[in-house]
UniProtKB/TrEMBL annotation:
It comes from Bowdeniella nasicola. It is a multi-pass membrane protein. Residues 25-152 form the RDD domain. This is Uncharacterized membrane protein YckC, RDD family. The keyword Transmembrane helix applies. It comes from the Bacteria.
Length: 262
């Protein structure tokens, strides 16, 4: 989930309620990553062409042309697609320079996002030698190329800004209750506020912590039925609800991947 602070800095909230500051990757940094990848693909192409010329019968030009076309498709689309999907939004170049592709909401990319980026990248990065991607990236604040816009993604640099954050765990005394309740569509902004609060609660003074916990619990209670057992601590109530939501979102993601045959 992606959020923007009053100062204009963007951050995402992970499933473990850890806040990460996200900085859109600069165009030069993305260009460097692209150059590294292009060098790798170029070396692979050179090796492939050498092998084709060495083992292809000289009187079979049609087969040679077919192999060249298939090879170009694999190098410009197939390999980038498989690598970026398998690594969750990275490539060799992106890994070297420390950047990654994320969805617009801060979540990890899925196969459809990578497919669109890779397909459009054939035109942006290869047919125009990166010129189209550079022009489009320079024209928007996040440095998104056309493939990112169509796929709903952007490239970021991540830095953990909440190193002392703790994983979000299910309170044992509420595990039975939370399995039986109905949880409505809690607004994403409210969920984000609750997660950030639980992450930073230990740093607040007792009075502010109590006030914030009660206020957030009161808001979240409107979407939960039946109510939590009498005497439930507001922070533990929030944790129980958020853990269940997180688990359900994860199961939804796994089932979607299974339906896609992944």
């Amino acid at each position: 989930m992606s959020v923007t602070s009053p100062g204009g800095k963007e951050s995402i909230i992970t499933g473990e309620a850890i806040e990460l500051e996200v900085r859109p990757a600069s165009v030069p940094l993305r260009a460097l990553a692209g150059a590294i990848d292009a060098a790798l693909w170029g070396a692979t192409a050179l090796f492939s062409i050498t092998m084709i010329l060495r083992y292809l019968p000289p009187d079979n030009a049609a087969q040679g042309q077919t192999l060249v076309v298939v090879g170009i498709a694999i190098l410009t689309f197939g390999i980038p697609f498989v690598l970026e999907w398998a690594t969750g939004g990275r490539s060799l170049g992106k890994t070297v320079v420390g950047i990654r592709v994320l969805r617009e909401d801060g979540g990890p990319v899925r196969v459809r996002h990578v497919f669109v980026r890779s397909l459009v990248g054939v035109v942006e990065n290869w047919l125009t030698f990166g010129a189209l991607a550079t022009v489009v990236s320079l024209s928007n604040a996040r440095g998104r190329r056309l493939g990112d816009m169509l796929a709903g993604t952007y490239v970021v640099r991540l830095r953990d800004v909440e190193a002392t954050a703790y994983p979000l765990l299910m309170p044992p005394e509420l595990s039975d209750w939370v399995r039986t309740v109905d949880i409505g569509p809690i607004p994403s902004a409210l969920t984000t506020r609750a997660r950030i609060f639980l992450t930073r609660a230990a740093t607040l003074n007792p009075e502010a912590r109590r006030t914030h916990a009660e206020a957030l619990a009161s808001e979240v209670e409107a979407y939960v039925s039946p109510a939590a057992p009498a005497g439930t601590h507001p922070e533990r109530f929030l944790a129980a609800v958020l853990v269940r939501r997180r688990n359900e979102e994860y199961l939804s993601y796994v089932r979607a991947e299974e339906r896609n045959g992944l």
